[in-house]
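Help! Submission page says 'invalid entity' but I think these are all valid:
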Amino acid sequence: MRLSRYFLPVTKETPADAQIVSHKLMLRAGLVRQTAAGIYAWLPLGLKVLRNIERIVREEQDRAGAVELLMPTVQSADLWRQSGRYDAYGPEMLRFLDRHEREMLYGPTNEEMITAIFAESARSYRDLPRTLYHIQWKFRDERRPRFGVMRGREFLMKDAYSFDLDEEGLKASYEAMFVAYLRTFARLGLQAVPVRAPTGPIGGNLSHEFHILADTGESAVFYDAAIEEITREELLAADASTIAKLTGLYAMEEEEHAKVADCPVPADRLRTRRGIEVGHIFAFGTKYSASMGLSVQAKDGSQVQPHMGSYGIGVSRLMGAIIEASHDEGGIVWPESVAPFRVGIVNMRADDQACTEASDGLYQALQAAGVETLYDDRDERGGAKFATMDLIGLPWQLVVGPKGLARGVVELKNRARGEREELSIESALARLSR
Amino acid sequence: MRLSRYFLPVTKETPADAQIVSHKLMLRAGLVRQTAAGIYAWLPLGLKVLRNIERIVREEQDRAGAVELLMPTVQSADLWRQSGRYDAYGPEMLRFLDRHEREMLYGPTNEEMITAIFAESARSYRDLPRTLYHIQWKFRDERRPRFGVMRGREFLMKDAYSFDLDEEGLKASYEAMFVAYLRTFARLGLQAVPVRAPTGPIGGNLSHEFHILADTGESAVFYDAAIEEITREELLAADASTIAKLTGLYAMEEEEHAKVADCPVPADRLRTRRGIEVGHIFAFGTKYSASMGLSVQAKDGSQVQPHMGSYGIGVSRLMGAIIEASHDEGGIVWPESVAPFRVGIVNMRADDQACTEASDGLYQALQAAGVETLYDDRDERGGAKFATMDLIGLPWQLVVGPKGLARGVVELKNRARGEREELSIESALARLSR
């Protein structure tokens, strides 16, 4: 993409209303714009990152055997009356009347709807087990939206729902999602700590939250230092034994920790850090199958109510969490897996024919090699271009200047490590073409 | 995908409330389920088709130089007050109050928001021309939702907005989108007729609707027979001359046609067919830049209000239009470009070891070759499997039965042409691996 034809409104000023670094950087780097309190438009660069996060979440859901569908954002209040949650849910639920005065709502979650959809066609044990998921915009009318997309009102969420014949099946589905979550966060370059969680308004008996460790997290997490020793490779290869190991180690969100009379972790091994909750999984049994009228025929001919779980990931919130975990004074440092472009080309002198020809050639060659590239072809000062590149955090910067070109070299900078290296154009291309 | 692990609730019964064939087939083939009046959940097979349509729409927008972003579904009423449309828009707009009693709405379109976003950063002629688009869920509270996704309330739309310095620039942007639309519909396997349209509530001075010819269209289209002679190849290679040719030929929606005193087309060349409106483009000039306060500095230093256009495609409606245009008594006949899977494998005897081994092998080989395949591995009768395959309309069916296998062959059926052919497993694989 040529920057001269793109839409990347970066700003030098730090927005006054942004308190945390991810919010500041998302506004400054032109990733999002607020359009109403807690509601954001995703500008081109931000949308690319959002789609990359979404893709990784999707791949891991598919890998776990979950099947994707898409439920609408607007739901009927009648569905929620069936489960009893229409009255139980607080003012976070955005409720309205349609033109025929029917009570509707903007879905904050989908247990009722997915159970109703599944109940319409599931007949027997042969239709189970099944895990269905979607990635859809949700709305929670936060009293005080803040921290940018971290606690916005309209947000993108992946929510999955599992249906099993019995508790044992539910446990297997729960573990499959647990593994998917460990892999997802590891692929996003994040260190996630699963903590045993209270189940809250969804109800149920087994639940874990996944917290990303970052100084600006909304709540503290207390955990056994051994959790920090689990490697990324171990998480990417996670299986039931990884879960057993992780859940065997102490980890609690602060409110729960406060209730623990005798913490089993010796003081010198007890760590506490702030955490950003990015995932939440629940095994809640038959709560919704009972209330929404879902039953299937078991092998012995009897009717049974499937055991269910639900599994959420805050897709849009993850973007904020990634930035909280990966930035420096210059701006964002994207992990390669979610970077909006892999390479940024800086043409130092758009008014110089040699620089422009070399930059154009590099751009075309990288495009041809399938390397996502943002080409700063604007007629601007080099200093401003460097600042923009650092701010938007692409993994690699390729700098084309007249002095280097005269010696037959360009400069390659690694954004994360800050290392710079002079290379011939051919070597630079070879290095960047995966 | 193995059907035994998928979620494909097909039904034999024709749903009582569905009037038109696409609505019936979308329900029967398990593409969608209605969750409230005019609101649908997209089941896995339907979602795959929707994503394929979306991908083609996106590719042609990108090809035309438009830049993708994503605006939220919920908008502030204040934005719409600025343009004067908050009061002008009818009861189709879904309005509500948030918990702080602020007036909000579910966006039916985005002229106001995109103009406000663009105005925040556009400063000079160097920031123009620019066309921005998004593909997002919209809501129009139809008084009487009907025809399934064709006239639903929550629907997926691609809407693009162009910003140009002057009328000439707007004309160029309008033509670029016109070309993108011709290519998009041709790639979707559809015959689209562009008709000169009244501009309606968006306002403006130049507008075309794109109608897909199908017997169940909501309005009639009158056009010159010469339009039918324009080939798919011509449309795929469309440029300004194609537009000149097309717009030089008479084509009017019935209400407009009725106003024409002397139709220039001789009676023997005047055709009339029902049309489904799937696209609508407008050049409306400075209406929104003026009302939303967008101006930029021109080359001569003066401030000018950009000339704008907006360009919509009904992405979810297109699925209905494609089915209306491409089905037979057995079910849907997907064009290859949007088919949810390219190949369906029918294992005629899941209880027969040879059949299952051969089917498993074909499935794995096709997966490895990157061919999207739905494998009916269920323990069901062959007849039911054939009916399902015809109903869901995958382009190719590969039938593995015990008699054929004994002779070393499988049967390959082309869904559109109904042709069947016996082939060795190797030849079938070679044929299907693109």
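Support: the input was valid. A stray whitespace character was the problem, and the output above is from the cleaned input. Chain B is about 35% helix and 30% strand.
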